[in-house]
Amino acid sequence: MTISSNLEQVNMRIQAAAERAGRDLAYVRLVAVSKNRPSAEIVDAYLAGQAVFGENYVQELVTKLGEVKEPVQWHVIGHLQSNKVKYLAGQVALIHSVDRISLAQEIDRQWGKLGKSCDILVQVNISGEVTKSGTTEEGAIQLVKECSMLPNIKVKGLMTMPPFFDDPDATRPYFSELKKLSEVITDSRIAGVEMRELSMGMSGDFEAAIEEGATLVRIGTAIFGER
Ligand SMILES: *Cc1c(COP(=O)(O)O)cnc(C)c1O
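^ thats the input. predicted complex w/ pyridoxal-5'-phosphate below
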């Protein structure tokens, strides 16, 4: 399978899931997760119509920022260390993985130096698994509030990574819980905060995620093959 035919398949499955859920396809965006894949494959995917790419590792992303000349949009989806934020300032469109205020403060500081602001999502560890990053559900509301006071940060929504199950339907409760949490945060009307995005769903479970309200699905393996 080529990247372009994989992308076509994935996009068809996204469309079908959105239709099943009665959702407008305009509010479901594909983030192609290109970690551990060479820049040439990112360019292939771009030429096949894919514009948004998600990366996990700062060093790898910085290398690719230099290599990929096409106007792709970069998202950070992996755990981020505060001391690496400076390498990304102004160069990524969305950071999905903000899970603590110290990280948000550093993003605020680095983007502020450029006179820019950074869109972020708050990562929530719905399952409570100790191996996963993310705030608790209660912690998320507090973190969103604290982020809303930082002048160069714009909170756009929430992200989660449920536990791995063979059965994609088993992940649904985690997705619906994230959606509920985002509604609770919307209802608390925090100034400057928009709960517009729900980043949830990967290769194994993105259709369930879309049916449960995902606006950003992060898909690697189904596009680029096994890592
Ligand atoms: C690697 C990764 C993905 C993509 O996973 P696939 O199963 O390859 O689709 C999505 N989100 C995060 C946070 C990841 O680290």
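The CA atoms of residues 148 and 192 lie 6 Å apart.
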